[in-house]
Amino acid sequence: MKRTIIVIYSLIFITAFFLNGNAQNTDTAAVIEADSIQSAEVDSIVADEIKIGDIRAGNFSRSVHIIKLLDENGYLIHEDDDLMMPFSTRNTCGDCHSYNKISKGNHFNSGINEAISGRKSEPFIYFDPYTLTVIPLSYKNWQGTVHPEKIGLSPMKFMDLFGSHYTGGMISESDNLQHPDNFFRWEVSGYLEINCLICHDADPGYDAAEYSTQIMKQNYRWAASAASSLAEVKGSAKNMPDNFDPFNSNTFADVDLRTSPPPTVSYDFSKFDSNNKVFFDIERTVPKEKCYYCHSSVISSESEEMFLHNNQDVHLKAGMTCVDCHRNDLNHDMIKGYEDEWIEKENPSVAAYSCEGCHIGNNDSESPINGNFGAPVPAHKGIPAVHFDRMTCTVCHAGKWPEEKASLVKTSRSHKLGAHFAFKSENAYPHIQSSVFVNSENDKIELSNILWSSYWAIKRGLVIQPMDIEFLENRLRPLMNLDSLLSAGIVPKISDSLMTYILTELNSSDHPGGEVIYVSGDKQVRLTEENKLEIISNTDTEVYSWPVGHAVRPASQALGIRGCNDCHSYNSNFFFSNIESESFIESAPMIIYSMTDLMRINSAYQKVFSLSFFFRPLLKFIIIISCALIFLTVLVFLGRSIFTISKYASNDSTLKNNGSKS
Amino acid sequence: MIYNILVITTIVISLLIISWISERKYTFKSLYINFLLFIKDDFILLFNSETRGVLSYLKLMRLMSFYSSAILFIIMALSGFLPFVSMGTSLSGLALIIHVTAAPLFCLTYAFYIILSAFQYKFEYDNYLFVFHRNSIEGSSEFEAAKDNVILKSAFWISAVVSVPVIISIILSMFPIFSTSGMHYLTDLHRYSVLIFTISFVINIFYSIILRIQDKNNT
Predict the structure, then answer these.
(1) Measured between alpha carbons, how far is residue A226 from residues A99, A158, A419, B91 in Å?
(2) Taking CA atoms, what residue in A is nearest to B91?
(3) Which pLDDT tens digit goes with each residue over A107-137?
(4) Which pairing describes strands A277-280 and A523-527: parallel, antiparallel, or unpaired?
(5) Max CA distance (Å), chain B
(6) Is the pLDDT of residue A39 over 70?
(7) Chain B residues touching A620 at Cβ < 8 A
(8) Are A649 and B128 in contact (CB < 8 Å)?
(9) From the candidates B90, B168, B178, B180, which should be mutated to test the interface with A, based on the most A CB atoms within 10 A?
(10) Under a CB-based contact definition with an 8 Å cutoff, are residues A289 and A321 in contact?
């Protein structure tokens, strides 16, 4: 009996123990799960946390920024520091503003796959004068551009090439976007954080060109500080070995300080107050000159006399700034200002900042949206409505008045304008043709810039893939042996013999499978089985176009102001201006396209249609006379008929009345 | 969309009218052949020196302007309506060029046709009787002829009246007078008035041919 009781108690005890254990495990799992959810929520809250500087009380006056400088590790920068470090915008500005939220803005979000690409825009143009390669690159999903990764361009290499006009953020600071090969270089150069000051620092001493110089020296960590008027940076991270540690002065010993000084920063401590704070002249409404650093565009032939010829955008001359239309809120998702942007962004208020929204309005909106800054409503008297269905506003109102031949333009990002190492030659590559009218993706003609691509590629079936640039730099540059002066703008050409030699060599090299070809402008070159060159015209021309909205001309200089003949004359530059295809192949003749080719309209049709404008005054005269004759005839004869009928009717009624009386 | 439906409705009504007129006595083929024969005969007469009296000359001119108007009308109707019906797009491309080229010629010939036919088509006592005292002539042999005559004249004058807004709406849009919204109104005025014009002119054309055939058969 005793034994039975002991066994029962033991069973109850063991069961209770297991049950309790399971319960504890479940509780622990639940706690961990709850913790992890909470942690994730906290993370996401932290990621997009709205900070004190992001909440505006509603006062329109200027916020004065007297703040402490923090370095990339969050430490205060102080005069007594042994090793001066550059200030970090992530920590200094991010102390009061949500850096993470801002980093998703469209100036900084390169590399985020989920980011809305929006309407295509100016790409970063890879131009290598030694391999005669011109490729429009973009991290955005724009048709016609190549993703940098597809030609083996790591973010580090991308920064080397294009960082001078890059605002920082994402590809230049996100760990998970970097190549392992560049790990040590990033440690030396530091990450290029979003440089808030490049747009918002209104201090006249802010030097954007110095920022570009620092980027070229790979001084990413130091660039923002160097450009500000608070600090001076010397040395170059590019010249430092991979094991260089800017936080450890012992590693300086490995460097020859006489020929390649390490990057160091020194602050102007006279600008620090007694609380170790500095004044930043921060402007929320970014001045237009700030935007110009990366968004200038000048007709190449007029660059030397630009202040004589170049009229700025009529809006800017009237006192507006870029950000009056290209607005953004905290997320820095700038409004580009194109027609359908509000549909893509699912935000009807965005419609107010397109040309049409501001100048004409939208009858569907609940309240009037047009007329900001006194925007006039255009009458467009006598212009058939089909023009507004088929063309964007910029076609008539922006860019250079069409000339016999499309003009070359230089842009800040493509020609490093504004930097100390700007491409100043009139013919400097890459060649961007401007004021070209192109049929866009939404089947409207729009004012655009175009770029002819040239690149070495692997062809597999119908797929053409540009080759890895590192492979080309290593293998092709020695084969071509081109003079570096070619980048100054002298059009180089590859002779047939050199082309045959190069293609033979590349095809026999250890490249990934497929046939090596060279695509240049509207031509493709390949080697036949007999080792002869075959030049094929591209049916789908290798031209990348992107719409441009500026500079807007005054209405009195818009196309059509002098009548239909501005565009519809027999040889009008609007339809028949020459677009030259650009090719580096010597034996391939340059093809001159007409503007109508890019508009995707029939050239012969436009010629015939323009003849109707030649005879139009006569036609108008004939129609007016005919109409007048018809009107008079109707008036006389129909009036007379009505008079006759009414006379019969009155006679009838008289007879009836007489009959009834009799 | 609404306009597309209206265009299709207009075409259907026009075809129904043609078939209704034709079914009475004539096939469409016979109408077409007779129309071409009339053109040929009248053209020969125009250049025949024996017929060159002032009145006969004017009559021939009237007929020529009618034929020209009818042919140009068909060209304009096809170039104007087909893009809408087939593709649902507004007038552009080759159709636009044809439409724009034919338009002044049509205006000119149509104006001649109206001027030279106005006297012939003025309403008279017979027409008055048919409209207001139909009972008095109903059942007589003249009833059908009177009916045809009234329909033909009505169609003629409706088309003449409507042609004024059709033409004016386009000519005004060629001058820098109206703004964008005004241009839209003018385009709409042209588009809708031309539908009425089409129906009335189709009736005018076909009744003219039928009456001419009847005259020819009677003589």
Answers:
(1) 21, 21, 14, 61
(2) A386
(3) 888 877 666 778 889 999 999 888 889 999 9
(4) unpaired
(5) 57
(6) no
(7) 171, 174
(8) yes
(9) B180
(10) no
Give SS3 for B202.
Answer: helix
Complex ipTM > 0.85:
yes
- Check CB contact of B101 with chain A, cutoff 8 Å: yes
Tell me how close the Cα of A621 comes to any Cα of chain B, in angstroms.
Answer: 9
Contact A382 B115 (CB under 8 A): no
The structure tokens listed for A257 are 């300080």
A374 in reach of chain B (CB within 8 A): no
CA pair distance A230, A20, nearest whole angstrom: 65
- Please tell me the distance from the alpha carbon of residue A490 to that of residue A471, in angstroms, as a whole number: 25
pLDDT over threshold 90, residue A394: yes
At A398 the pLDDT is 92
Helix (H) or strand (E) holding A348: none
CA-to-CA distance for A640 and A645, rounded, in angstroms? 9
pLDDT band of residue B136 (cuts 50, 70, 90) is confident
Q: What is the pLDDT of residues A197-243, one digit of tens each?
A: 999 999 999 999 999 999 999 999 999 999 999 999 998 998 888 88
| B47 has a chain A CB within 8 A of its CB | no
What distance in Å separates the CA atoms of residue A248 and residue A77, rounded to the nearest whole number? 17
| Chain A CA closest to residue B94 | A605
Token look-up 């020695």 returns: A478
A384: contact with B, CB 8 A cutoff: yes
Q: Strand (E) positions, A193-315?
A: 231-234, 264-267, 277-280, 297-299
- What percent helix, strand, coil does chain B show, rounded to 5? 85, 0, 15
Asked if A188 and A247 touch (Cβ cutoff 8 Å), the reply is no
CB contact under 8 A, B97 and A609: yes
Biggest alpha carbon–alpha carbon distance for chain A? 145
Amino acid identity at B115:
I
B65 touches chain A (CB under 8 A): no
Task: Please report where in the chains the tokens 């639940």 appear, as a residue.
Answer: A30
Residue numbers in B near A609 (CB within 8 A): 96-97
The whole-angstrom distance between B194's CA and the closest CA on chain A is 15
Are A240 and A255 a contacting pair, CB within 8 Å? yes
Q: In degrees to the nearest 10, what's the CA dihedral of A151, A153, A154, A158?
A: -150
Structure tokens at A242: 């991979």
* Rounded Cα gap, residues B141 and B156, in angstroms: 24
Is A616 in Cβ contact with B171 (below 8 Å)? Answer: no
User: Taking 50 as the threshold, does the pLDDT of residue A480 lie above it?
Assistant: yes
> What span, in angstroms and rounded, lies between the C-alpha atoms of A191 and A173?
5
User: What is the chain B residue with the closest CA to A384?
Assistant: B183
Contacts B176 to A, Cβ<8 Å: 381-382
Amino acid in position A588: A
Other C-beta atoms within 10 Å of A608: how many?
14
Pull the structure tokens for residue A618. Answer: 């006569």
The structure tokens 């729009």 sit at: A446
Structure confidence by residue, pLDDT tens digits, B165-211: 999 999 998 888 888 888 889 988 998 899 899 989 988 888 888 88
DSSP label at A237?
A: G
Question: A571: how many CB neighbours lie within 10 A of its CB?
Answer: 10
